[in-house]
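Worked example 2:
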Amino acid sequence: QFNDATVLVIGAEGDGLSMSVQQSCDSLVSIPLAGKTPSLNASVAAGMALYEIYRQQWEGRLHLNTLQKAK
């Protein structure tokens, strides 16, 4: 669950996160893969993670059309 302030750390493609970075994290998550997909591009994984963080923290509280009306 991403209910509190969250820092997202993305590992390098192929190498992932170093052990020292992993040990500094409160929790680690991964994106399950299915089928013939061996891995995700780091930017794709980041986008998916950011969407899920947004969905859990802001869905129903902040809407894009509200921001557009404020301009």
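Residues 19-70 form one domain. The helical segments are 19-24, 42-58, 64-70.
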